[in-house]
Protein 1
Amino acid sequence: MRSIAIDGPSGAGKSTISRRLARDLGFLYVDTGAMYRVVGLYALRHPETPIAEALENIRMDMRYQDGLQRMYLNGEDVTDAIRRHEVCRAASDVSALPGVRAFLLDRQRSFAKTHDVIMDGRDIGTVILPDADIKIFLTADAEDRARRRYDELCARGTAPDYQTVLSDLRKRDYNDAHRAAAPLTPAAGAVIVDTTGNTFEESVRALKRIIRKKLRL
Ligand code: DC
């Protein structure tokens, strides 16, 4: 099985780009951030429940429909609910907890044993799939990423103002890069790709070049 690890801060375009690459190259796309968001959503709904107990109560399922990954929390389809702004923060909070990371690690690795995967997240190249065939660290300026995230949230009708999105993004960047458990950092051997100012198609082309060359596709 072949695996491509794509890590980077939020808003760099990881998920939209990875989804397209997976479709074009015939790989399975695995969005690991969605898993943290499911745990974050549960924590938001059950603020009194200690996290260890919460993890015992969570039955998380991932199903693919027309190539799209849908997330289920105890049987409920939460694919849209986990995209809400407050769930971003909750996901970032729970992702700092080693117990939560351990809870998700085996699930994430098992996909790569049975499928050709493009997996995106924060620690895919460093922790989950250190032997991935290709590791990419996708990044962009904070303003550029906040603008994309803002547009995305507007399209869903749930956007706060741009300044709030930018300051939340900076806070999350800081948390993700400074937490003790699997901090966000480029993996050894990762190709760093900066998408600042790129259109979506330009970023897709840049990554395809890297992947095709390395995998001889
Ligand atoms: O990529 P995203 O915004 O959906 O991720 C949600 C949160 O989960 C984000 O704060 C970072 C965290 N995360 C992580 O710590 N490790 C991953 N592999 C994926 C996401």
Protein 2
Amino acid sequence: MKKVITYGTFDLLHIGHIRILERAKQLGDHLTVAVSTDEFNASKGKKAYYSFEHRKAILEAIKYVDEVIPEATWDQKIENIVHLNIDVFVMGDDWEGKFDYLKEYCEVLYLPRTEYISTTTIKNDLGRNNI
Ligand code: C2G
């Protein structure tokens, strides 16, 4: 069984998130998503609108997702990849090159981001009543 993993906050779920999850699943047979905890988000300078529990439950409801684990630190990736027997690590290409150190443990792929949508854009548009 070919196992894939990806990481992220996945707040205010949108088509860009769905498309990265869809493509990640197409790369193997099993997709694990490591979703950022609220505390880890704070360390990323992010405050998600939805709590960790809600973001986790929403991801678990997506047909492409087989397993959701917490992402609590930047440096848990190697342990996750080794412990979960991951074959492919996938991220959007806004992270291009940032995780190349994982190449000694698994395949590392950066996929093109979906253009013109982001959680930040959604928040800004809603804030300006641009809906
Ligand atoms: N993404 C995308 N297209 C968008 C928006 C996001 O492909 N329009 C992808 C990102 O590239 C990322 C994933 O969706 O691979 C999740 O994005 P975020 O929730 O913004 O995650 P991020 O804050 O980048 O956290 O350790 C890695 C970090 O946890 C990544």
